[in-house]
Amino acid sequence: MTSRRQFMMTLVPAAVALSAATTAIAADNHVDEKDPTATGLGYKHDATKVDAKKYPTYKAGAACGNCQFYQGKASDAWGACPLLGGKQVNAKGWCSGYAKKA
Question: What pTM was estimated for this model as a whole?
Answer without folding.
Answer: 0.72
